[in-house]
UniProtKB/TrEMBL annotation, chain A:
It comes from the Eukaryota. Keywords: Repeat. Residues 11-46 form the EF-hand domain. The lineage of its organism: Eukaryota, Metazoa, Chordata, Craniata, Vertebrata. This is EF-hand domain-containing protein. GO terms for molecular function: calcium ion binding. The keyword Hydrolase does not apply. The keyword Repeat applies.
UniProtKB/TrEMBL annotation, chain B:
It catalyses: O-phospho-L-threonyl-[protein] + H2O = L-threonyl-[protein] + phosphate; O-phospho-L-seryl-[protein] + H2O = L-seryl-[protein] + phosphate. Keywords: Calcium, Hydrolase, Magnesium, Manganese, Metal-binding, Protein phosphatase, Repeat. One of its GO terms (biological process) is detection of stimulus involved in sensory perception. It comes from Zosterops lateralis melanops. This is Serine/threonine-protein phosphatase. PANTHER family: SERINE/THREONINE-PROTEIN PHOSPHATASE 5-RELATED, SERINE_THREONINE-PROTEIN PHOSPHATASE WITH EF-HANDS 1. Its EC number is 3.1.3.16. Residues 461-496, 544-579, 584-619 form the EF-hand domain. It comes from the Eukaryota. Belongs to the PPP phosphatase family. Its cofactor is Mg(2+); Mn(2+).
């Protein structure tokens, strides 16, 4: 663990505060606890739902109303942003996905309609999304709207990957 | 999941991969949500900042004229013969001819449901109602509204809901959608419309016509509350006056005159079963419903001028004008009703962002409820992304019925169905001009580019100030400053609380060292028809205050001719710039003024003049050419 320059820490705090304030509806330094995941992700972090829960616990949310105060939010999130381990690399991810989708294709070969090997039917995607940290109904619909080619009801995973992947050099904290 | 693998290692990979897909997906969605939120934040900040500017500009204007009695500035424009109380339906029929070529609705009074349907049908097909019928309708509406008290009392019938709608702001599509989903107004289907029918949208006139028509047909079942936009000065600034003058080229002055009267006769509040209070803005700690009910509402018209006076010139006008003093309480009472906003902090503080009314906390609400034995307050006046919002522990509901208020896809609208047990049910909707629903990514993209466009225009309008602020940080004259300094400069000059670091990538270029090339934020913009005689600083000021100048010129132009004399223009401009502390050389104005007087007749068409200072985006022009 190495020391960070004061300037960097201050900049990170400011950026985190900015993101927080966008969700602060009444400008009174509080946000709804349900938006914490969104705020942290929009800062360029890549946590799972479980990791988000852990962070929320550190923020000591008040029971009534479920609000998080900026004072509690800032130290927790600043630490997260400084600690780069929460950001998962691209390559490992792609390998997992390729393996997984390839596997799914093998299992479901019988129902597969014989299009290019880079696509999967919508139903199979639904299946894969029900494991892990499953999507709720709304997330499912939104994801399918982006991922599925509406005419053929197929999922082209290379295109999907392109849509999801964000240019690393533009995301925080690589570029303060 | 049925695709159960035989090997545990593969199973683990599958799980990992699923989690990864989900992480990525949520990551992308979060970024989209952030973009959507800051876009709405941009829209709202600019809207409120504009309202603040307006206050300042009016102070300037009034200051320069304070020696003129206030009542003279605020009296009706010189077309008094139309506002004549005795003018009745037959007079309009005699004076205004409807040609045979007119295929729009021909109203016959007293109105019936057939007339209302004809109007709806016509407006769906983008037809205009003829001026004679408009004037007859307004005249009848005024007659009916005069009979009504300031506060209307309703009681729920044993089985029917009452529908309550909020701000419509000229969005005809929303009104038609509400009628489609919820049915037309009738004895069995009662409605309360809570103000702000006009301004901003392009069908304010049509909305008024429909609402007034139903009011005349069902006076006990359709109720209207006045909003802060049912006001002459607001209409000048926010588009309604322009809409009327464009649609009714021959009769707009008469229509606007009559409308001013009608607006002043709109009731101020509605109470259902003595338990649910419905009004446009909010309340304050001095709100007294008995006082509100007793005051003479039509006498306090054009209160916004008085708002400016009260908040800026108490000294001058209290001395010179006993009038304003006498009506002070009434004016304040109405301002509170029409302009206040609820907040979660206790107490009642002046509403700084609006310049009128106050921020009222849960304690103020509780006290009022206790005093009058109320159960709920339904109000509008504030934009809400979901069309409604509940605050003060369920006691206060904000209802906003104009969907896509800032931009296609920016927000939903909603209306309330109040059951006979006084339980509210919310119905949300969103009008769309696309037959295929845009997906989330497209919707956010539309809102974001619209918001950024407005922001860039504001940046351009403050170019000189920004340049000198940047220069202060750029000690070595390199043309680059740190992100921190750039953000600080933007915030201090523009006075907008926005996430500047997040927006930086859309507004200015950054070099690989992490420094901002600050002049790059001006590259995209230029003025439409640059006037050679205008110095850059002058042009920029005109650009920034274009809308406000429009209002001032309209007020000076008493006979609504669209022209003012060179001298009036110079004088106004001089006072304006000096009071705002803008340093402009004397002769530059004279040169400019002479160059604008195209036909050399000593008068300026100020609309044409102001059009020249409209900001245009270079990239946009390229796309259309």
């Amino acid at each position: 663990m190495f020391l960070f320059a004061d300037g960097l820490v201050a900049e990170i705090k400011k950026k985190a505060t900015e993101a927080f304030e966008v969700f602060d509806r009444e400008s009174n330094q509080t946000v709804d606890v349900r938006e914490i995941g969104c705020i942290i992700r929009s800062l360029g972090c890549f946590p799972s739902e479980a990791e988000i829960q852990e962070l929320i616990e550190k923020m000591e949310v008040e029971e009534a109303g479920g609000f998080v105060h900026l004072e509690k939010f800032l130290p927790v999130v600043t630490k997260v942003l400084l600690d780069r381990r929460t950001y998962t690399g691209k390559r490992e991810g792609i390998r997992c996905i390729v393996l997984f989708l390839f596997y799914s294709v093998r299992i479901k070969r019988r129902s597969f309609q014989g299009k290019s090997s880079q696509s999967l039917k919508g139903q199979n995607i639904i299946l894969c999304c029900l494991s892990g940290e499953p999507f709720n109904q709304e997330e499912m619909e939104d994801m399918l709207a982006i991922a599925l080619d509406p005419e053929s009801d197929t999922f082209h995973y290379r295109d999907y990957r392109k849509k999801l992947v964000v240019d690393e050099t533009k995301t925080f904290p690589f570029n303060v | 999941v049925n695709c159960c693998p035989c090997s545990t290692k593969l199973f683990f990979t599958v799980l990992q991969a699923a989690i990864l897909i989900q992480k990525w997906y949520r990551f992308t969605m979060a970024r989209l949500e952030m973009r959507r939120r800051y876009s709405l934040s941009i829209f709202q900040s600019i809207e409120y900042a504009d309202e603040q500017d307006q206050l300042q500009v009016f102070s300037t204007f009034l200051f320069s004229f304070y020696l003129v009695p206030v009542s003279e500035i605020f009296t009706s424009p010189s077309a008094p013969q139309v506002v004549d109380e005795d003018l009745c339906l037959k007079e309009f029929e005699k004076k205004i001819d409807v040609p045979d070529s007119y295929y729009g609705p021909r109203l016959s009074f007293p109105l019936t449901v057939e007339d209302a349907n004809a109007l709806l049908h016509a407006f769906r097909n983008e037809q205009l109602l003829h001026a004679r019928y408009v004037l007859q309708l307004l005249s009848e509406t005024r007659r009916v509204l005069k009979e009504m008290p300031n506060i209307t009392h309703l009681s729920t019938s044993y089985s029917k809901d009452i529908t309550i709608c909020g701000d419509l702001h000229g969005n005809l599509d929303d009104l038609l959608l509400i009628f489609y989903k919820n049915g037309l107004p009738s004895e069995q289907n009662r409605y309360v419309f809570n103000g702000d029918f006009v301004d901003r949208g392009k069908n304010s006139m049509e909305i008024l016509i429909i609402l007034f028509a139903f009011l005349l047909i069902y006076p006990n079942d359709l109720h209207l509350n006045r909003g802060n936009h049912e006001d002459y000065i607001m209409n000048l600034r926010y588009g309604f006056t322009k809409e009327v003058s464009k649609k009714y080229k021959d009769h707009w002055k008469q229509i606007l005159c009559l409308l001013r009267d009608v607006f002043s006769w709109l009731p101020l509040a509605t109470i259902i079963d003595s338990k649910v209070l419905i009004l446009h803005g909010g309340i304050s700690d001095t709100t007294d419903l008995d006082f509100l009910n007793a005051l003479e509402r039509s006498k306090v018209r054009d209160h916004i001028h008085v708002r400016v006076i009260l908040f800026s010139f108490k000294k001058f006008l209290l001395i010179k004008h006993p009038l304003s003093h006498a009506h002070k309480h009434e004016v304040e009472c109405i301002l509170d009703i029409l302009w206040s906003d609820p907040r979660s902090q206790n107490g009642c503080t002046p509403n700084k962002s609006r310049g009128g009314g106050c921020y009222f906390g849960p304690d103020v609400t509780a006290k009022l409820f206790e005093r009058y034995n109320l159960k709920m307050l339904i109000r509008s006046h504030e934009f809400k992304p979901e069309g409604y919002e509940i605050s003060h522990d369920g006691k206060v509901i904000t209802i906003f019925s104009a969907s896509n208020y800032y931009e296609e896809g920016s927000n939903r609208g909603a209306y309330i169905k109040l059951t006979p047990e006084l339980t509210p049910r919310f119905v949300q909707y969103q009008v769309s001009k696309f037959t295929r629903r845009q997906n989330l990514r497209e919707r956010v993209g539309t809102i974001e580019s619209s918001a950024l466009k407005s922001l860039r225009e504001k940046i351009y309008a403050h170019r000189s100030e920004l340049t000198s602020a940047f220069a202060q940080y750029d000690v070595n004259g390199t043309g680059r400053i740190s992100v921190n300094d750039w953000a600080a400069a933007m915030e201090s000059v523009l006075q907008l609380e926005l996430p500047w670091r997040m927006l930086r990538s859309q507004l200015a270029q950054m070099n690989p060292d992490g420094e901002v090339d600050f002049m790059s934020c001006f590259y995209d913009l230029k003025m439409d028809q640059p006037i050679k005689e205008a110095q850059p600083a002058l042009a920029e000021t005109l650009c920034r205050y274009r809308k406000d100048l429009e209002i001032i010129f309209n007020i000076i132009d008493k006979d609504h001719s669209g022209l003012i004399s060179l001298e009036e223009f110079s004088q106004t401009w001089r006072l304006f710039t000096s009071h705002l502390g803008i340093d402009v050389q004397d002769d530059s104005i004279d040169k400019l003024v002479l160059s604008i007087d195209y036909n050399k007749d000593g008068h300026i068409d100020f609309n044409e003049f102001l059009e020249a200072f409209h900001v245009v985006h270079r990239l946009e022009k390229k796309a259309t050419s």
